[in-house]
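re the bet — no i am not wrong, look at it urself. input seq straight from the record:
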Amino acid sequence: MPIFLTNTTKTVLPEQSLKTLIEQVIISEKKSCLEISAVYCGDHYIKKINQSYLNHSYPTDTISFRLNEGEAIEGEFYISIHTIKRNAHCYGVSFENELFRVTIHSVLHLLGYNDQTPEEKQRMTEKEDHYLNRFQHHLN
């Protein structure tokens, strides 16, 4: 499964665990993958993407782009390590826990899950919790 990780920050990331997590979520959802690019960046970079594509003038934790239609997934997502660190502190969880949760969240978006309505947000959170619990022993 071609999954490419790019880290533009100085934060050391558990790259193999992230790749395994991405693969396992896709397999568990009974989907296939043409190619996924996962970019772990800073607030400045993700803010530029947010402005360019979504017309929002602020950093966010993640932005996902599905690049094709059909069964096999081709896409990319961007995750701000700075926002992950702030959110982990706010939510009282470890950096790794928040990093894995947002990575799962990003993959779920590529798989077609949305979080615009309260029902969609609840379903997304349930999926995130499920995969965090299911693959915890593969992570770190």
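see?? Residues 3-138 form a domain with the Collagenase (Catalytic Domain) fold (CATH 3.40.390.30). told u. also The chain has one domain: 3-138. so pay up
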